[in-house]
Write a structure and sequence with these properties.
Blueprint (H helix, E strand, L loop, with lengths): L1 E6 L5 H12 L7 E2 L14 E2 L2 H6 L2 E11 L2 E10 H10 L1 E4 L2 H10 L4 E6 L2 H9 L6 H14 L3 H4 L2 E4 L8 H8 L2
Parallel strand pairs: 1-6, 1-7, 2-3, 7-8
Antiparallel strand pairs: 2-5, 4-5
């Protein structure tokens, strides 16, 4: 089974993925990115951090790019789920973080997959984002705008919705419903 986590920036997707990997022994499905690692992120664990050239040489199941600002300069960050990682996910199962477009595409290709939308108040998301060492106000404003567009239909497309308010939680009923005992 593939569990697909979607949610706006700062909603806690990484935290929830880590929790599910530890609690349910799910494998982490790792995507590629050309963005630089954040403090504490590890290559091959959080993402496969690659150069633009390496990214272009990789066969992807789905890919997306974002125009962002880094230190006042325009940058393009690319993200993608490689075909090889997708095949491993189908074979072994696991949990992955994708944007809504990628989640819908993966769900269409593999209908047994489950999309879990992580919902969270904007104020809480911003508080979390500001704790990141590389917080950038201009980038955050861009993400707020993009998230509003990208996730306007997320609840409609999700199999489950989890409220990840001030403190992450799944209710016991949600855990049993989504992951079994």
């Amino acid at each position: 089974m593939i569990y697909i986590l979607i949610g706006k920036s700062g909603s806690g997707k990484d935290y929830i993925q880590k929790y599910l990997v530890e609690k349910y022994n799910l494998s982490r499905i790792v995507t590629h990115t050309t963005r630089p690692p954040r403090n504490g992120e590890q290559g091959g664990v959080d993402y496969y951090f690659v150069t633009d050239s390496e990214f272009e040489k990789t066969a992807f199941f789905e890919r997306r790019q974002y125009i962002t600002a880094v230190d006042g300069h325009k940058a393009i960050w690319k993200y993608g789920l490689s075909r090889a990682e997708c095949e491993r996910a189908v074979r072994d199962g696991g949990v992955i973080i994708l944007d809504l477009t990628g989640a819908i595409k993966l769900k269409r290709a593999y209908p047994d997959s489950k999309i879990i939308f992580i919902d969270c108040l904007d104020q809480t998301r911003e508080e979390r984002a500001m704790k990141r060492a590389n917080f950038n106000r201009q980038e955050w404003e861009r993400r707020l705008q993009t998230d509003g567009q990208d996730f306007c239909t997320a609840i409609v497309n999700a199999d489950y919705v989890v409220d990840n308010g001030r403190q992450f939680y799944f209710t016991e009923k949600q855990l049993q419903t989504i992951f079994g005992s």
